[in-house]
Q: What sequence folds into this?
């Protein structure tokens, strides 16, 4: 029940906007495992990052849009999330010229700051921001600050939902579940991050 109360206001805050006017899809990294085997390669994406990338690949193919992947090496024993994502997009058939990588960002704030610089360099004025639904409100805070501040229009495209947006009450919600605990922890992380973003103004 706590997961529903905490998570649903975050996940339902933004609906998926159509990319009709977008010039680029910006997808945020969601974690990587540097030494994970991936066929003949090493390095894999965690579940949130994989879900985001799959959605981005589908939209890029449907609308012939470039994908800007933002995500650096968060931990010393890790790997750049953007480079892993780039390899996977190429394996999925997206051409190299349709992929842009930003490999320095380690936080959502840095995702926005470095993406703003790339958008300025490339003349992008309309961005479709793609990240997990739980993460979207905090992401929009930073992207509105860094990109909106330079006149870039940002449309939200949340994905990787953890809760049913229109789910009706189920008695099972009253029984503690590991998945619900995970969602509660992630939601609390987002609320703390949003408060921190506000205080950093």
A:
């Amino acid at each position: 029940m706590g997961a529903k109360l905490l998570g649903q206001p975050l996940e339902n805050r933004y609906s998926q906007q159509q990319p009709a006017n977008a010039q680029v899809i910006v997808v945020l990294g969601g974690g990587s495992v540097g030494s994970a085997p991936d066929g003949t390669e090493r390095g894999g994406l965690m579940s949130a990052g994989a879900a985001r990338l799959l959605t981005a690949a589908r939209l890029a193919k449907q609308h012939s849009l470039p994908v800007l992947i933002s995500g650096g090496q968060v931990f010393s024993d890790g790997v750049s999330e953007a480079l892993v994502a780039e390899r996977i997009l190429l394996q999925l058939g997206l051409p190299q010229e349709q992929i842009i990588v930003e490999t320095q960002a380690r936080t959502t704030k840095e995702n926005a700051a470095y993406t703003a610089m790339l958008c300025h360099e490339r003349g992008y004025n309309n961005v479709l921001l793609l990240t997990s639904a739980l993460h979207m409100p905090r992401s929009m805070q930073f992207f509105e600050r860094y990109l909106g501040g330079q006149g870039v229009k940002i449309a939200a495209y949340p994905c990787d939902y953890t809760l049913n947006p229109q789910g009706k009450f189920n008695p099972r919600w009253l029984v503690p579940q590991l998945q619900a605990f995970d969602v509660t922890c992630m939601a609390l992380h987002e609320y703390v991050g949003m408060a921190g973003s506000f205080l950093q103004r």
